[in-house]
Amino acid sequence: MKREILITSDGSTTIHLPAWNEQYHSKHGAIQEAYHVFIKYGLNQFITTKNLNILEIGFGTGLNAFITYLEVKKHQLIIDYVGVEAYPVTQKEISQLNYVTELNVKEEQAVFDTMHSLSWDKRHDISASFSLTKQKQFFDEIDDVDAYNIIYFDAFGARVQPELWTVEIFKKMYKALKQNGVLVTYSAKGSVRRAMQEVGFKVERLPGPPMKREMLRATK
Fold first, then answer.
1. Do the Cβ atoms of 16 and 4 come closer than 8 Å?
2. Are the CB atoms for 184 and 219 separated by under 8 Å?
3. CATH number of 30-219
4. pLDDT by residue (tens digit) across 70-127?
């Protein structure tokens, strides 16, 4: 499938799939969306919890992992981060992503590059307070139980991949979360909210990122 690098409205890059008219991150601002959905309404709910376990559904460009690493340094957290991805981004695509420049953290370029060059299916210490495990697998193969405080659910949208937004997938997410853990996603579709509720989540509609009215946060 053809893939293109796209500059989004806030100047940061994303990967665009013309055949699906779908992007890895919002075309209205990749960095803005990531901070709004996953940091503001996800990580920041646990800012007083020193040791956190995070699961990302759709590691993709590494943007969400990278900004979480930056937040760890700000707030002196300790995070064990697991990113699941069935189809890793290529090194050529990674070289065209401008997150380090747009975030004005050129001193962290080596960290961003390392996140992508690390071997898969093995835990790596990025720093003393941030570890990363990239798991190359399909989302329906996840079988963790009571393992995570937060899930960043950043799969391609239900319009193009409805099989990733089903009751069966959210059952796995529910089991993977610790009690009082949260799942955050950019999606606000009614079918997604109902699937989350069916498996036992308490679901909130929250203000969405730029050009999106709402998003969802689900609590176990």
1. yes
2. no
3. 3.40.50.150
4. 999 999 999 999 999 999 999 999 999 999 999 999 999 999 999 999 999 999 999 9
Sheet holding 202-207, edge to edge: 123-127, 130-135, 78-84, 51-57, 148-153, 177-185, 214-219, 202-207
pLDDT given at position 211: 87
Tokens describing residue 33: 């969306």
CA 71/CA 14 separation, integer angstroms = 21
Structural domain spans, the chain: 30-219
- Terminal CA-CA length for the chain: 37
